[in-house]
Design a protein that fits this description.
2 copies of one chain form a homodimer. With 292 residues, chain A is of the alpha/beta class. The first copy, chain A, has 2 domains: 2-161, NAD(P)-binding Rossmann-like Domain (Rossmann fold, 3-Layer(aba) Sandwich), CATH 3.40.50; 168-287, N-(1-d-carboxylethyl)-l-norvaline Dehydrogenase, domain 2, CATH 1.10.1040.10. Helix content of chain A is 52%, strand content 14%. Chain A contains 14 helices and 9 strands. Chain A has helices at 10-21, 37-41, 50-54, 67-75, 98-109, 123-128, 140-153, 165-193, 198-205, 213-217, 219-223, 233-249, 255-272, 280-287; strands at 2-6, 25-29, 45-46, 59-62, 89-92, 114-117, 120-121, 132-138, 154-161. In chain A, strands 1, 2, 3, 4, 5, 6, 7, 8 and 9 form a 9-stranded mixed sheet that branches. The longest helix of chain A has 29 residues, at 165-193. Chain A is elongated. The relative contact order of chain A is 0.09. At the A-B interface, strand 8, strand 9, helix 8, helix 9 and helix 10 of A face strand 8, strand 9, helix 8, helix 9 and helix 10 of B.
Chain lengths: 292, 292
């Protein structure tokens, strides 16, 4: 099948690679061409714009960073929708605004194009191992057309509802992760200050009611002083801000989320934008005048 | 072996039952005698006070509700320490103040008695299935003497350090759980308000980076409107308050913990003291003027 792939960052490259492996013909566009080199060597074709990439595609996939990027590569003058033919499918994997997903779905529908918002969870590892959780929003028709492709990229593929509902489900995911990271980092600070051995503490709390993916995967990185990104602080702040904006729009107060965003903002303002989300501990250490 | 067991609530009864099964002779004391009936029928002996229960015991176990209860049954005029002989061992399973654990260990040491603080995690199920995580604080000698018994009650038995360190490790556990519950409840509120199907959301987020014990075990109870206690709100507030007091004593600001305690306080003031910790959602619903 002819597929266009727009956005070849860490996640996008790994995901697009699976489509090459599956034998699809890929047209690529990315803001930074060098990031597409690996895929081009494997036989993908370079396109000079999202529009050019999308011209002959049956399915157009987008994995960008921010809602503004999605807007540009989908709805802009050189965007994919300009070239897509009726009956084709647009799948946006970016974590982005639900309202933008609705706007894209409407613009697509007016041209007879199917659209799906399909943000993912599972990080770079999940992308590489095709074990992502994919949360899809759009019509049943769009979901069914996309399913074989989604199923190749993810382990858990769920249709969450109409346009924007994939994004909303992803927001729920991020809300839960943010608060949990806060608890994990505060617990670790407490453990250190109380003079405990954080490894032994992990052995005790990791097998009980405090057990979580983040505790098992990110707490050990903090202990090792490893703040390398599985997921960037700046992207997480973008997600939390979208969640807070949506909550405000729905008249919903989420105090834990607001606090977590504030602490992550402190990580960013301390220079941690490109660190991983486990760097939340740095903000709490600063708050407590502790050297990292 | 002669063992005294003081406190036969939900957790204590299940744990003491394993010791009967293992063939130990048990002397029991509990504030409410009727709660000991099951164990008495199985051959345990009733004692009129903690002191009386402890008189011939090689090991005295305590599982009470609050630090004040522990203080009374251990250090009070009718407390266990009054009757314990030199070389005997006191194990306090109650989640309580680290400073009280130190005080008990000191009082015990002055009489040649060994003492261990050994709070547990894993709830009523963990107690029944002898799969608790047990976090022990005390001397190496006390831990080694206690180990065979702890190992019969728990799956994960860790020596966290000197007196009070078991309590500190349990505080870490509670700090992590509190923030995570906040994220889970806020995520669920968001999901509902956004019109998502919370079951489908669980299917999406439960297998990824938001996965946690509480999400798998308590989120479904909230969906079912089931606020029955695995663990009482009022006991959890006690724990969070101890953690905050200890943090303040150590000069540590933990904003997530402070917020979680405040929200749990709102659950209690709304009449939810004897509900399970998943009732946190009720406070967030009230904050948002939503009917439960």
């Amino acid at each position: 099948m002819q597929i266009a792939w727009i956005g070849t960052g860490v996640m996008g490259s790994a995901m697009a690679g699976h489509l090459l492996t599956a034998g699809h013909e890929l047209a690529l566009f990315s803001r930074t061409k060098s990031k597409a080199d690996g895929l081009l060597r494997r036989g993908a074709r370079w396109a000079v714009s999202p529009r050019a990439a999308a011209a002959d595609a049956e399915i157009v996939c987008v994995m960008a960073g921010y809602p503004e990027d999605v807007e540009a590569v989908v709805l802009g003058p050189e965007g994919a929708l300009q070239a897509m033919h009726s009956g084709a499918l647009l799948v946006d994997f970016t974590t982005s605004r639900p309202s933008l997903a609705v706007r894209i779905a409407d613009a697509a529908a007016s041209r007879g194009i199917l659209a799906l918002d399909a943000p993912v969870s599972g990080g770079d590892i999940g992308a590489r191992e095709a074990r992502l959780s994919i949360m899809a929003g759009g019509t049943k028709e769009a979901f069914e057309k996309a399913f074989p492709l989604l199923n190749r990229l993810g382990k858990t593929v769920m249709h969450q509802g109409g346009a924007g509902c994939g994004q909303h489900a992803k927001m729920v995911n991020q809300i839960m992760i943010a608060a949990n990271m806060m608890g994990i980092c505060e617990g670790l600070l407490y453990a250190r200050r109380a003079g405990l051995d954080p490894q032994k503490v992990l052995a005790s709390v990791g097998g009980g009611a405090a057990a979580s993916w983040s505790l098992a995967n990110l707490y050990p990185r903090i202990l090792a002083g490893d703040y390398q990104p599985g997921f960037y602080v700046e992207h997480f702040i973008k997600d939390l801000q979208i969640a807070l904006d949506e909550a405000a729009r729905m008249g919903l107060k989420l105090p834990g989320l607001a606090l977590a965003r504030q602490l992550y903002e402190a990580v960013r303002s301390g220079g941690g934008a490109r660190l991983g989300t486990q760097a939340l501990i740095l903000a709490l250490e600063r708050l407590n005048h502790l050297a990292p």
